[in-house]
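Propose amino acids for all 210 sites.
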């Protein structure tokens, strides 16, 4: 049986180009082509594609919100994001929503076809740039977690207050200590986390907590 594929892409030129590419394949059959998520969400019940190739930036519902809504209802459909790499943080939004693949529009035609076949087999194809971003993220997260663990309980408490937007005086009042003691804690925090300012410290704290 062929792999049944639906395309959700608002750019007509790209949508028609991918449709033509798929039409030339013996193992893949295009069963739907949509310019917005709403149309696809309306027709998915009767189409039941094996793979949905979906752009992130769509008019109306985004590709991410579409996947988030449909994946629990149609767990058998493999959703592969098909987009440009202009906002790497959207990668995790897409994966958390239920996408199992992430391919860039800049990939050669043969790579796109290969990705469709791979995701249908149960794999999670990703463009190299995406895979590298994911690996780098978790490496940073692991390092941040190790740094956070080096803090004392009181230092973590100070950092937690900092991350919530409290100023030194407010932190001192909350912890029943002097402002000078707060400053001393913060100097130690910066030293242990290898950062130079409040923003960097908060970022490491949040990375370590995620």
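Proposal:
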């Amino acid at each position: 049986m062929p792999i049944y594929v639906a395309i959700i892409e608002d750019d007509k030129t790209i949508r028609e180009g991918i449709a033509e590419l798929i039409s030339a394949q013996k193992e893949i059959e295009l069963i739907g082509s949509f310019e917005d998520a709403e149309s696809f969400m309306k027709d998915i019940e009767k189409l039941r594609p094996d793979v949905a190739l979906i752009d992130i930036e769509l008019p109306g519902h985004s590709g991410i919100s579409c996947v988030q809504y449909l994946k629990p209802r149609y767990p058998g459909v493999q959703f592969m994001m098909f987009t440009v790499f202009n906002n790497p943080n959207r990668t995790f939004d897409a994966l958390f929503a239920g996408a199992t693949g992430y391919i860039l529009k800049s990939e050669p035609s043969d790579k796109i076809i290969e990705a469709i076949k791979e995701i249908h087999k149960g794999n999670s194809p990703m463009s190299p740039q995406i895979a590298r971003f994911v690996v780098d993220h978790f490496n940073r997260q692991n390092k941040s977690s190790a740094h956070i663990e080096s803090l004392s309980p009181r230092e973590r408490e100070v950092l937690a207050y900092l991350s919530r937007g409290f100023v030194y005086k407010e932190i001192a009042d909350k912890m029943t200590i002097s402002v000078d003691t707060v400053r001393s804690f913060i100097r130690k925090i910066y030293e242990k986390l290898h950062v130079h300012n409040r923003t960097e410290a908060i970022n490491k704290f949040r990375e370590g907590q995620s």
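The beta strands are 3-8, 28-34, 51-54, 78-83, 101-104. The radius of gyration is 23 Å.
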